[in-house]
Amino acid sequence: MRRRGPKAPPKRPGKEGGKRALNRQKRIEDLERAGLELFLDKGVASVTIDEIASLAGTAKGNFYRYFDDKRALLDAIVGEPAAEVRKAMRRCAVSLGKATSDEELTAAYSELAEALASVAMQHLPVMRLYLQENRAPATPETEGLHALARELEDGAVQLTEVAADRGLLRVTDPRVTALVVVGAIEQLALGMLRGRLQVPPATTAQLVVEMVLHGIARP
Known about the structure:
With 219 residues, the chain is mainly alpha-helical. Helix 7 crosses helix 8. Helices cover 73% and strands 0% of the residues.
């Protein structure tokens, strides 16, 4: 079953790169910035379209020119980092599919860890929003974000299965192992965002890889 991804704002008339197109892009970015700020401050469920439009300096009607609803706006906000994470996981899957040694296994996971740390550092407010809303009950407005969380969890399981099938990991249940790793990464991210973890993200990611692989790599 195909998952519903972020819905791109509809295209409007205007020459690409022209003034109308640039103005349109600025309005979209202003709405996304306003939405991100308000969602972080009040939670997605408590924010109104009027508040988003007001903070973005535009009329409420303009919001609906670019987004159907708050879910569409939230999906757009999360869309870019989510796409980068998907690419990193696909690269890791390819590397694991070719790995024949512990060194290649470690290299594949290390590359993924570094990529995820880079995405996190480039999109810290979005990461904070993801962690905030993923821990809250799903609503129609946040279903896209929760679907993304499930997709990433499934992706982590598939990576574990690939490595296990190649005899590089010893795991009884790939889902349990993968979800433990995902949970640990999220807890470390929260610690970093709350100022309780002073280790650089890239170093933290590498430590997670080393600890996990030390426990489940083949004897």
